[in-house]
């Protein structure tokens, strides 16, 4: 289960990255608000849910190795993954809103 969870998360992360890059690239070429609003849809949410599922299975399986029952392992892994996923999703929405408003300086890392 440990390897299965890791593979699910990696495969979903690859799909998430591809969809995000393609849609942001399309938006950059056309400067259409429809492209950015599409990022909040099912096309991006499904791979993100796959990342969350794979991470939860991976964490719970890792805890099970150390002797936790599956109920306790999933009970500890699920809130951790859901909290992290909520924070990441809200940050992604903020970054997309900044990108849509034309504030691309927020993404420049050269200023550090």
Task: Name the features.
4 helices; 0% strand
What does this structure look like?
With 112 residues, this protein is an all-alpha fold. It has one domain (2-102). The protein is built from four helices and no strands. The chain has helices at residues 2-30, 33-38, 42-65, 70-100. The termini are far apart. The mean pLDDT is 85.
How much of the residues is beta strand, in percent? Answer: under 5%
Q: Runs with pLDDT <50, length 5+?
A: none
The end-to-end distance, rounded to whole angstroms, is 41 Å
User: What is the ordering of alpha helices and beta strands?
Assistant: HHHH
- Biggest sheet features: none
Shape: elongated
Please indicate the count of domains. 1
| Rg, alpha carbons | 17 Å
Secondary structure: number of strands:
0
Helicity range of the residues?
over 70%
Tally of helical segments: 4
The SS-based structural class is mainly alpha
Mean pLDDT: 85
Briefly summarize what is shown:
With 112 residues, this protein is an all-alpha fold.
Topology:
Blueprint: H1 2-30, H2 33-38, H3 42-65, H4 70-100
